[in-house]
Amino acid sequence: MNSGVCQWVFNKLLTADEMDMFDCIEFVGAETDADCFEPLSRYWSADEPIDEQAERARDLLDDHGLWVSCYTLESNFAAYDQDTFDETVADCILALDIADVLGADTIRLDPRSTLPEEQQGDPDLDFILERVCEGMQQVTDVAADRGVLVGVENHGVLLGRTQQVARMLELVDRDNFGVNLDYSNFRIVFGEDQVEAARLFAPNVVHVHAKDNCLTATEPENAEEEGWRKTLPQDSQEWYRPCVAGTGDMQLPTIFSIVHEAGYDGTISLEVSLADDIFGTVREGVANLNRIIGEIEEG
Q1: In terms of DSSP bridges, do strands 239-242 and 213-216 run parallel, antiparallel, or are they unpaired?
Q2: CATH of domain 2-211+250-297
Q3: How is the chain split into domains, by residue range?
Q4: Of 43, 32, 45, 37, nearest to 6 (Cα)?
Q5: Lowest mean pLDDT among 65-74, 113-122, 168-177
Q6: What is the pLDDT of residue 192?
Q7: Pick from 51, 36, 37, 34: which is nearest to 7 by CA?
Q8: Does the pLDDT value for residue 121 go beyond 90?
Q9: pTM higher than 0.70 for the full model?
Q10: What is the helix, strand, coil percentage profile of the chain, to 5?
Q11: Which of 41, 76, 199, 256 is the most buried (most CB within 10 A)?
Q12: At 234, is the pLDDT very low, low, confident or very high (cuts 50, 70, 90)?
């Protein structure tokens, strides 16, 4: 396995226009020991054609000896809006050209669907899931012709539960379709056991997002000031606080061992940084990922 950095870790700086795509690549290549970089489609500049930016990004990646572990796409498979659904499928298929320029053999899809007002209170999740899978299947079929893997991330509050992700695997049913495993989302968003989720999906993992959190079953006295938040399930009695990868309670060595033993030999992509020291916590997180990966592979 190898370590990577997801561009999301720089989100605060990117949205404040304090960094751009190329600054992120430069930092990862010059300031960390990561092997890979994971660009997000949302972060391209609107002032230059994306294919031209991708060419520049690939040159910079090559200069630093980095490769792209996954090209992470925005996708809204709007179950009740045919125009948006069709546009999303078309955009994801066009993005395969950018993945090719970047040298990426994996893309990530989000099982997102906007909902009309009448569906927001009590959505028909079975229908929505099946409709989303129709869109992902269309993208995956074209990706197969390009030799590209497609990973659905357990993302969002609508379709990110373990049973729903398992159902997506069944419905899309393609050899080049698997899971972009974000184990933390299972625990923080749905209160599910992240280790058991990793065990369930290990044979289908095509990419891994590495986040870490400190966890506690007792509300901290100064929760808000210290950055503690309650996990999202309504009956939750657990609190979490993001921390440097490898220093928290999400059991990273166990999870990485599970996917490795199932045959995964790809990238563990860092997806957590701390707002008060983004650069320092990215450096430390990558170093911890490399240490954990080394320990696993040494047996």
Answers
A1: antiparallel
A2: 3.20.20.150
A3: 2-211+250-297
A4: 37
A5: 113-122
A6: 97
A7: 37
A8: no
A9: yes
A10: 50, 15, 35
A11: 256
A12: confident
